[in-house]
Design the sequence.
């Protein structure tokens, strides 16, 4: 999203510029997926190399299939949110639902932002992604609200120098 006014992570505080791979459109921010308990839907790290999460009924959890599409554009648009398009030096903001990890009794961990150096190529391993951390954002950087599960949290970072292309960004 664009830089929010006064760290307003709500839908009114900025403009959404893109979504995670294969993230379904039409779902309310922070809503539970397929009736799963809210605490189990929190994901502060995107792991595209892992297989989809399966429900006990064998259904794939919406938003959990983050495998790379060929071409990558197939994982965006239509029933999925759009791909983020940005430029070197831009301020890019991400937001996430507080879920149970932003509870008062939980430590304030960090959301790690990793950006692959591989352009227009296959996804790199999780080990390689962890070597390409470009930002660390406080997990509990959240708006006030009574619904702990769905409070909007977020953070911003500068897009580092990379040649034009499609890159894997993990948070």
Sequence:
């Amino acid at each position: 999203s664009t830089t929010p006014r006064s760290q307003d992570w709500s839908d009114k505080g900025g403009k959404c510029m893109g979504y995670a791979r294969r993230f379904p459109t039409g779902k309310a921010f922070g809503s539970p997926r397929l009736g799963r308990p809210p605490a189990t839907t929190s994901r502060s790290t995107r792991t595209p190399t892992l297989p989809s999460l399966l429900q006990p009924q064998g259904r794939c959890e919406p938003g959990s299939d983050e495998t790379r599409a060929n071409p990558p554009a197939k994982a965006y648009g239509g029933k999925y949110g759009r791909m983020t398009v940005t430029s070197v030096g831009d301020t890019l903001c991400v937001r996430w639902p507080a879920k149970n990890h932003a509870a008062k009794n939980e430590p304030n961990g960090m959301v790690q932002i990793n950006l692959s150096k591989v352009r227009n190529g296959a996804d790199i391993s999780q080990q390689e992604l962890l070597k390409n951390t470009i930002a660390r954002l406080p997990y509990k950087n959240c708006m006030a609200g009574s619904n702990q599960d769905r409070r909007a949290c977020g953070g911003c970072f500068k897009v580092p120098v990379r040649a034009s292309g499609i890159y894997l960004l993990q948070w």
Notes: Residues 99 and 149 are 4 Å apart (CA to CA). Residues 1-5, 33-62 have pLDDT under 50 and may be disordered.
